[in-house]
Design brief:
- It is a single chain.
- The protein has one domain: TIM Barrel (Alpha-Beta Barrel), CATH 3.20.20.
- Strand 4 and strand 5 form a beta hairpin.
- The protein is of the alpha/beta class.
- The strands form 5 sheets. It has an 8-stranded parallel beta barrel with strand order 2-3-6-7-10-11-12-13, surrounded by 7 helices.
- The structure holds zinc ion.
Length: about 280
């Protein structure tokens, strides 16, 4: 199927986005926030079938931050547990975080993936998530320099075309890996039609995954599976398993993808299979 691009037709790469910057323990007390909790969730998701974990950090009071020491502690704990899961560190920044501090976690800790949000956005109608051209150029150069592969997050069509611009300029190397993020207020709504539109406008030479934030999570998951895409799940995007029923862990979402994929006669990709599909150079 043309819409599959370079994804494996028989394997689904599951990324578990464990924490994010948005949810709190008030939304779901099982949300992992401190390094020990995040590392334990990463191992649990790997054991449930996730190939990739996407990591954000919080300060001691659980507020979102970009503190290098928290990233280091988390990554060290996952590596000390001998967990082979692929690490994907966020580069998102709230106002006032310097360019250097946004890239320091992947520059120093050498994960295999780091996020590249391809544009600024009026995040949930509250503030501007800043990814201005100067930052994207700086980020693209640092990723190439360190050999860390960008996971190109696109929240709407404009961001998709911004990514194509940077692919054309050589700041994002091909084949690129896209994450289509739908349903975050300020971005494109999470509907099957929007997902299909986005997938149809991806370049041929790429791999891709998708997710829907909040209530549309399962609809987007099912549509993505039908289109041959990879899947992101986790508390960053959705704290409920069913409507108004808080999920018991990040790993239960991974289990749901495993069951749905099995019904399609597909298996979840192991981290090593995902490395092959995504063309990762092990940079650690
Ligand atoms: Zn994130």
């Amino acid at each position: 199927m043309a819409t599959r691009r370079l994804n494996d037709p028989d394997k689904v790469i599951v990324t578990a986005a464990l924490t994010g910057s948005e949810p709190s323990k008030k939304d779901n007390p099982m949300l992992p926030t401190q390094p020990r909790e995040v590392a334990a969730a990463a191992v649990e998701c790997y054991e449930a079938g996730a190939a990739v974990v996407h990591i954000h950090t919080r300060d001691d009071d659980d507020n979102p931050n970009m503190d290098f020491n928290k990233f280091k502690e988390t990554v060290d704990l996952i590596r000390e547990a001998d967990c082979p899961v692929i690490l994907n560190l966020t580069t998102s920044g709230t106002q006032g975080v310097t360019y250097e501090n946004r890239v320091k976690p992947f520059v120093e800790l050498k994960p295999e993936l780091a996020s590249f949000d391809a544009g600024s956005m009026n995040w949930r109608h509250r503030f501007v998530a800043m990814n201005e051209p100067g930052f994207l150029e700086f980020l693209g150069e640092k990723l190439i320099e360190t050999g860390v592969k960008p996971e190109v997050e696109v929240f709407d069509t404009g961001m998709l075309y911004t990514a194509l611009h940077y692919i054309g300029k050589g700041l994002i190397e091909e084949p690129a890996h896209f994450q289509i993020c739908l349903g975050a207020p300020g971005g494109m709504p999470a509907t099957p039609e929007n997902l299909i539109y986005m997938v149809n406008h991806l370049p041929e030479n790429c791999t891709w995954g998708a997710f829907g934030v909040g209530r549309a999570n399962v609809d987007i998951m099912m549509t993505t599976l039908a289109l041959g895409g990879n899947i992101r799940v986790g508390f960053e995007d959705n704290v409920y398993y069913h409507y108004r029923q808080p999920a018991q862990s990040n790993a239960v979402f991974v289990g749901r993808v495993k069951r749905l994929a099995a019904e399609q006669n597909k298996k979840l990709a192991t981290p090593d299979e995902a490395r092959q599909i995504l063309g990762l150079k092990k940079s650690r």
